[in-house]
């Protein structure tokens, strides 16, 4: 069944945005995923359509009101699949989480604005908090686009070559090896000999060695996890 995506936002015109183009856009028009955006502002109760107020305890900025956000969630969330709030305080998104989301029947994403959402509504709905990295965006919409782009490309039939998902960075706990295409000699820079050899086992070994080297140099955090796994495999024989 196609993945149903619900987005709660103060800026519904953001969507589908870039997800309406390229592979994701084609998949959307083919019905491989569907999108419902909910304008949180329509759940404001006063005549000024107020969605935010100043923080109790003082301080800068505004906070999204729990009653308004609650009404928006209540109107859309079918209790099928996770309810996700994008926030710099959340668990940092990685490919394992992306794969888990891609297997859900439905995803509901809440985009924050201002300083964020009143804590009580997050507690009341037991919302999953997800960050896209250690930096501050001005709203959750861009973070939602990032998360969804990563999820949608994993949906069945979305990526042209289904294998091109498995060989990539992170799927094996390693960064990707260097890529080359024609011309074989570009401004005197030549493609590594082994890639022209047609020898599949040698190509695979070279790529593995390159991927390991790049990961070791650039991402000691990934490398220690990979090295531990590799050692484990070796011990098992
Ligand atoms: N006051 C918050 C703090 O210090 O953590 C930052 C609020 S930010 C200006 C406004 C909204 O942008 C947040 O509620 C969240 O929805 C979204 N946002 C900002 N950075 C994000 C990130 N790294 N990952 C996911 N969402 C983010």
TrEMBL record:
The keyword S-adenosyl-L-methionine applies. Keywords: Cytoplasm, Methyltransferase, S-adenosyl-L-methionine, Transferase, tRNA processing. Transmembrane segments: none annotated. Its EC number is 2.1.1.228. It is found in: Cytoplasm. It catalyses: guanosine(37) in tRNA + S-adenosyl-L-methionine = N(1)-methylguanosine(37) in tRNA + S-adenosyl-L-homocysteine + H(+). It holds the Pfam family tRNA_m1G_MT. Its main location: cytoplasm. One of its GO terms (molecular function) is tRNA (guanine(37)-N1)-methyltransferase activity. Residues 3-224 form the tRNA methyltransferase TRMD/TRM10-type domain. The keyword S-adenosyl-L-methionine applies. GO terms for cellular component: cytosol. One of its GO terms (biological process) is tRNA N1-guanine methylation. Gene3D superfamilies: 3.40.1280.10, tRNA(m1g37)methyltransferase, domain 2. S-adenosyl-L-methionine binds at residues 112, 132-137. Homodimer. NCBIfam families: PRK00026.1, trmD. Belongs to the RNA methyltransferase TrmD family. Specifically methylates guanosine-37 in various tRNAs. This is tRNA (guanine-N(1)-)-methyltransferase. It comes from Insolitispirillum peregrinum. The lineage of its organism: Bacteria, Pseudomonadati, Pseudomonadota, Alphaproteobacteria, Rhodospirillales.
């Amino acid at each position: 069944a196609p993945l149903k995506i619900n987005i709660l936002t103060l800026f519904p015109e953001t969507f589908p945005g870039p997800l309406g183009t390229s592979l994701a856009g084609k998949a959307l028009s083919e019905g491989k995923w569907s999108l419902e955006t909910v304008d949180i502002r329509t759940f404001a109760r006063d005549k000024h359509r107020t969605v935010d107020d100043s923080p109790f305890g003082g301080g800068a900025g505004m906070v999204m009101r729990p009653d308004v956000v609650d009404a928006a969630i209540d109107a859309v969330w079918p209790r099928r699949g996770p309810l996700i709030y994008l926030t710099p305080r959340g668990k940092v998104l990685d490919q394992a989480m992306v794969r888990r989301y891609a297997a859900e029947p439905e995803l509901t994403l809440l985009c924050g604005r201002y300083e964020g959402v009143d804590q009580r509504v997050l507690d009341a709905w037991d919302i999953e908090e997800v960050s896209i990295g250690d930096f501050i965006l001005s709203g959750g919409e861009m973070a939602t686009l990032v998360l969804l782009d990563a999820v949608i490309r994993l949906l069945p039939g979305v990526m042209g070559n289904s294998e091109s998902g498995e060989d990539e960075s992170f799927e094996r706990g390693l960064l990707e090896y260097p890529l080359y295409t024609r011309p074989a000699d570009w401004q005197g820079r030549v493609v590594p000999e082994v890639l022209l050899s047609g020898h599949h086992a040698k190509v695979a070994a070279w790529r593995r060695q390159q991927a390991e080297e790049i990961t070791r140099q650039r991402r000691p955090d990934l490398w220690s996890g990979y090295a531990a796994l590799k050692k484990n495999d070796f011990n098992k024989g």
